[in-house]
Amino acid sequence: MPIATVNPASGETLKTFDALGAEEIESRIASAAQAFRQYRLTGFDERARLLNRAADLLEQDAPEIARTMTTEMGKPVVAARAEALKCVKAMRWYAERAEELLADEHPSDADVRDTGASRASVHYRPLGVVLAVMPWNFPLWQVVRFAAPALMAGNVGLLKHASNVPQTALYLEDLFGRAGFPAGCFQTLLVGSSAVENILRDPRVAAATLTGSEPAGRSVAAIASDEVKKTVLELGGSDPYVVMPSADIERAARTAVTARVQNNGQSCIAAKRFIVHEDVYDAFAERFTAGMRDLTVGDPMDESTDVGPLSSERGRADLERLVDDALSRGATALCGGQRPKEHERGWYYAPTVLAGITPAMRIHREETFGPVATLYRVSGLDEAVAVANDSPFGLSSNVWTRDEGDVRRFVRDLEAGGVFFNGMTASHPALPFGGAKRSGYGRELSEHGIREFCNITTVWHGAEPDDGS
């Protein structure tokens, strides 16, 4: 696809960019490798100073870069500003804590003696140049949650961003440059997906991280595996949202609306499959459907808009095919199920709730990337767990219950990277983030995320000889 800013609210192409040629790519990889040789020697105090400066600049830029994100991919501008400020928070979190998270570790004296050493320690050393292949849906946050810990660990980054958010991608390179990071520490590569393989195979590139679709993850993983390079993958999600009889139904239904339509429904960790116990199904379905129906769909630059357009015409067409297939096989649209008639321009889709989902429908197995929810009625806890796990994905999950027995069972049995009780899934720098099954592997954020791109180095010192021997 072309590298261009196309306003999804109107379909208008606003700006196009030329892809980098082979010579320019080579120059940037060389610059990154050179930068790493020096940057890896900086101390945590200096890295923290630079990252805090980037955070300060981003905080000042938040209103402007929010409008850029909204123009490029359609998220409501209120959510775009919140995304920018979330990035500020993550930068400051890692600037403050990285030295502690990567502190040298020392085994117990007994274990050291048992190894035959006089002393031993474990050190976290940076890997080098890390390639980040990032998606359009959270065009700042997805990058910063990689970049902040990677830079604090002493790595340097090359960003291959999605082709529909080029201005946001270029802003990120400019941000780190203005903050004072040495030239080459963080660079944006305006290239198509076909260029990724050669970049990843370059021996100067040490590792890669990708957030995106399952096919993209498979491709990057296969290339990196062939080169024996470390990867972290965060792929698709079809997160369950389970509501049990002891739940606060009013709160569960209200939160469910936000959990489904955050980012116009285009979020890997958005709740997508709503699995409701038969004892409270009718009450939940009524409230949830009413909440989805009442959302304001409109211009994402309008502060009152709840749901803007989907990011692309293709994305809307993919969503329509899933919904149409479900309806043709017997599903019922409790609301929505079509393009909103009042929005003829742009790539809008009405908030939708589908009931009567069966395994014969594509939507039962495939991820819905848009404001479409599927409702399931279950008879008890066992069936709730079975339906929740009946997905190729396992990113996160949500459970509403006040029964401790339910809590223990869902923690034990849900196949997901996270279980959020009585609330919606959210990412925070203090909590590890990642999935199971086809949702990928590895973790971002927290101490786990910053250590993913470190060489965990064992240092062993032999025991001194006994002078009397």
UniProtKB/TrEMBL annotation:
It comes from the Bacteria. Belongs to the aldehyde dehydrogenase family. Keywords: NADP, Oxidoreductase. GO terms for molecular function: aldehyde dehydrogenase [NAD(P)+] activity; succinate-semialdehyde dehydrogenase (NAD+) activity. InterPro entries: Ald_DH/histidinol_DH, Ald_DH_C, Ald_DH_CS_CYS, Ald_DH_N, Aldehyde_DH_dom, ALDH_GabD1-like, GABD/Sad-like. Pfam families: Aldedh. The keyword Cytoplasm does not apply. The keyword NADP applies. Residues 3-459 form the Aldehyde dehydrogenase domain. NCBIfam families: PRK09406.1. Gene3D superfamilies: Aldehyde Dehydrogenase, Chain A, domain 1, Aldehyde Dehydrogenase, Chain A, domain 2. It comes from Streptomyces scopuliridis RB72. CDD domains: ALDH_SSADH1_GabD1. This is Succinate-semialdehyde dehdyrogenase.
